Amino acid sequence: MTLPLTPSDKLKGLVTKLAEKNKIIVLIDEYDYPIVDALDNDKLAKENLKIINNFFTALKGHSAHFRAMFITGVSPIPKTSIKSGMSILDNISLEPEAATLLGYTKEELLTHFSEYIAQLARIENTSEKKLSDDIRL
Fold first, then answer.
1. What range defines the domain where residue 110 resides?
2. Same structural domain for residues 86 and 107?
3. For residues 101 and 71, is the Cβ–Cβ distance under 8 A?
4. Buried-most residue among 14, 82, 110, 114 (CB within 10 A)?
């Protein structure tokens, strides 16, 4: 009798198959949502933390297949809480090189934040054009 595949087995199969051609890039958005969303339920938050730990531990076991891993979240990665699984990561949030990885284009700023640029221009007693020109991307 064959035992059903565990989530770790399935992840291993996926990573191995994807890495047959090239090393892979792993993107994880809002890794901490299951914990943050359960802050009012300590038991659920701890269960979710355990699941996240198991996931990252499983990922770590296949890191030789990774070209890069990029993880976002609203809270810092708690390496002390998720000991073994997260020890392969480096937090680059405050590194100058990371500033160019994400953000807004000048066009996006002008399109989506024009009202705020106008407000700041009034506060700074300058023109919107001058302020827009001064915004560094």
1. 103-137
2. no
3. no
4. 82
Q: Indicate whether 83 and 122 sit together in one domain.
A: no
Are 28 and 82 in the same domain? yes
| pLDDT attached to residue 129 | 87
- pLDDT > 90: what percent of the chain? 26
Residue 12 shares a structural domain with residue 53 = yes
User: What DSSP assignment string belongs to the chain?
Assistant: -PPPPPHHHHHHHHHHHHTTTS-EEEEES-TTHHHHTTTT-HHHHHHHHHHHHHHHHHHHTTGGGEEEEEE--SS---TTTSHHHHTT----TT-GGGGGTSS--HHHHHHHSHHHHHHHHHHHTS-HHHHHHH---
Residue 112 within any structural domain of the chain: yes
Residues 4 and 72: their CA atoms lie apart, in Å, by: 31
